[in-house]
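My hope is that you will study the record closing this message with an eye to the fold:
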Amino acid sequence: MLRRIVPDLAHRWRIYALVRQRDPSLAACGVTQIVGDLDRPDSLRRLTGLADAVLHSAPPPDAGTRDPRTRRLIAALRRGSLPRRLVYISTSGVYGNCDGERVSETRPLRPQTARAQRRVDAERILRRFGRESDCRVSILRAPGIYAADRLPLERLRKGLPVWRAEEDVHTNHIHAEDLGRACISALGCGRANRAYNVCDDSDLPMGEWFDKLADAFGLSRPPRIPRKVSRGDTPNRLSPAQLSFMNESRRLDNRRLKRELGFRFRHATVDAGIADALEK
């Protein structure tokens, strides 16, 4: 996702990227690469005192309820002069299931999966770092990220089901390009220790999202099933991870993003994003 905004970032900053291995495409964009790994603290020494601003998009590990990677990043940053601003890409999963209610950033966090608990842990670490330093920390809570090259078309081809309409959940979306642009906006004017819901203006159930994709790309619409049979031994049995995602319903409120960051979408709805994908 962040690769999409490198040209825009390069107009304002000299860019350093922490990478596990060097990437020629980043070098071609003028990005200075620092080989390191958030799972190896000894490889992070070169980060000390390096950056005025930090974009933190590294996910937590796949297990546990804590995020040691964010802890190691903060430890490395604390050793020298601190960055003045930091933007972290979190997830809307930190809210848990909200039964389709409208959700603002002030809603208490109730993560219901270990994956979301790890993100809450990261947010707390970063908020504490922001309070204890002069670094302005902004947290972007993103829902389902999509783009022309990251659409769930394979899911449709496999014929995986969604809930029937009367039992469906509400989902939220953000185009990868708009998420990147929101990062730039937050670097510029995000408030200290402030969270922002970064989602577009779409307001639709999950089944309608997949129906739109199927119709646009000439695929079969997903079958609709009642929740009570989803865990059974059926041809369309859903994995625990898929069930977890499908059992959380919320409608994110993005007014703070627009009001405080003055953000304007390039893809204000999934319809606009799908149309853009069809042109590529």
Remarks:
- The chain has a mean pLDDT of 93.
